[in-house]
Amino acid sequence: MTAFPDSPRLVRGGLVLVDPATGAVLRLIALQYNPDSVQRSLQVRGVGQDSGDHLEALRLKGPPIETIKLEAELDASDALENNDSQAVQLGLHAQLAALEVLVYPASSQLSAANGAAASGTLEIAPALAPLPLFVFGSRRIVPVRITELSVTEEAFDPGLNPLRAKLSLGLRVLSVDDLGFDAKGGGLFMTYLQGKEQLARQARGASFAQLGISGIP
After folding, report:
1. Is pTM, for the whole model, over 0.85?
2. Confidence grade of residue 4 (pLDDT, cut at 50, 70, 90)
3. What do you get for the CA distance between the two ends of the chain, in Å?
4. How far, in Å, CA of 190 to CA of 143, rounded?
5. What is the pLDDT of residues 94-144, one digit of tens each?
6. Three-state SS string across 151-203, please?
7. C-alpha R_g of the chain
8. How far is Cα 19 from Cα 25, in angstroms, rounded to an integer?
9. CB 31 within 8 A of CB 13
10. Domain boundaries in the chain?
11. Which superkingdom (predicted)?
């Protein structure tokens, strides 16, 4: 079916994996359907929040701890109708695996660590994983750590390949406190924060009348 020429182009949310050292893009993962809602929570990091020190009451010691939660759906129905070979053979296995491997160390890293331990190495630094960027429109590109991934598979083909699934994804935004200013991820966080500041300046201010007062006593 030909799309209506004036219909808006659908922009999908997703993840971009980049090399934490070089910033090179390693992989792009788009959500099949955008979530109906995105829940965000910001935990303020104040100085001396419980100390009772009046001089410190309005000081912030760093960016808040921001967490993001969302639910998304995957469905192989359209691909099966179009006789897509991957959907016919695997259902949603490949799409689910692309997300699940983000929370696993690579098998090669595990084997290398085991070999190093067997040879007598006492301390083995875990290898760096790719840095995920949560992308939800051009104004929200932010480095994150995946903290939770839950999958509910709801329908299967005769070979027990999943055909429909729901994902619950928990993310923690990584700030310059986590990544440093010089790292690619730190620079992306600063761009994210500066974008918020620019949007905040565009917000229309309120009036005292709207607050039901004539001024501050």
Report:
1. yes
2. low
3. 65
4. 10
5. 999 999 999 999 898 888 888 888 888 766 677 788 999 999 999 999 999
6. EEEEEECCCCCEEEEEEEEEEEECCHHHHCCCCHHHHHHHHHHHHHHHHHHHC
7. 23
8. 6
9. yes
10. 14-45+61-104+128-195
11. Bacteria
Question: In the numeric block, which tokens belong to residue 19?
Answer: 């090399």
CA torsion through residues 50, 171, 147, 187, sign: negative
Q: What residues are paired with 14 via a beta bridge?
A: 30, 135
Question: How sure is the predictor about 1, in pLDDT bands with cuts at 50, 70 and 90?
Answer: very low
Q: How many CB atoms lie within 10 A of CB 108?
A: 9
Place of tokens 């410190």: 56
Residues 6+ away with beta carbon under 8 Å from 88: 80
The tokens for 90 are 């695997």
Handedness of CA 117, 119, 125, 126 (dihedral sign): negative
Rounded CA gap, 11 and 122, in Å?
A: 48
Output the pLDDT for position 117: 83
